[in-house]
């Protein structure tokens, strides 16, 4: 990987992070209405062979943790918790960092999901 490739990858990750921040703001405004489109995006990208898709899916999931109410979020997250936990073994470090962040956001806003 040369310097130009690294710069391009940093730019892509920056766009993903900024998109996640924007999505978090939207989730706060529209609450439960954010879950369907985001979960569809997460579901279609979480198992992608491309690590950037998995990373983006996790950023989207973590971004909406504060928007939906507790019951709505629990109904979505609990069935997929084992799959999320398995992502700690992802071969790419950025994906492992992202799942750690997602789990911290879940614990911050919906701790009972983890203890259920």
Task: Describe what this molecule looks like in 3D.
With 116 residues, this protein is mostly helical. It has one domain (3-115): Leucine-rich Repeat Variant (Alpha Horseshoe), CATH 1.25.10.10. The protein contains 6 helices and no strands.
Summarize the structure.
The chain is mainly α.
* Fourth CATH level, the homologous superfamily: Leucine-rich Repeat Variant
Strand segment count? 0
As residue ranges, the low-confidence spans are: none
Pairing-aware structural class of the strands and helices? mainly alpha
By CATH, the architecture is named Alpha Horseshoe
- String of helices and strands: HHHHHH
Domains, number:
1
Which percent range describes the beta-strand content?
under 5%
What's the CATH topology name?
Leucine-rich Repeat Variant
Roughly what percent helix? over 70%
Helical stretch tally: 6
Shape: globular
Q: Span from first to last CA?
A: 44 Å
CATH class: Mainly Alpha
Task: Calculate Rg over CA atoms.
Answer: 14 Å
**What oligomeric state do the depicted chains represent?**
single chain
Q: Would you tell me the overall average pLDDT?
A: 88
Major sheet summary line: none
């Amino acid at each position: 990987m040369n310097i130009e490739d690294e710069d391009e990858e940093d730019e892509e990750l920056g766009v993903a992070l900024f998109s996640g921040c924007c999505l978090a703001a939207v989730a706060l405004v529209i609450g439960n209405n954010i879950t369907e489109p985001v979960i569809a995006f997460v579901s279609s990208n979480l198992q992608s062979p491309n690590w950037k898709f998995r990373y983006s899916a996790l950023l989207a999931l973590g971004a909406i943790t504060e928007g939906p109410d507790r019951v709505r979020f629990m109904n979505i997250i609990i069935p997929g918790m084992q799959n999320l936990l398995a992502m700690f073994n992802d071969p790419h470090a950025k994906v492992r960092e992202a799942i750690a962040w997602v789990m911290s956001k879940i614990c911050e806003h919906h701790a009972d999901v983890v203890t259920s």
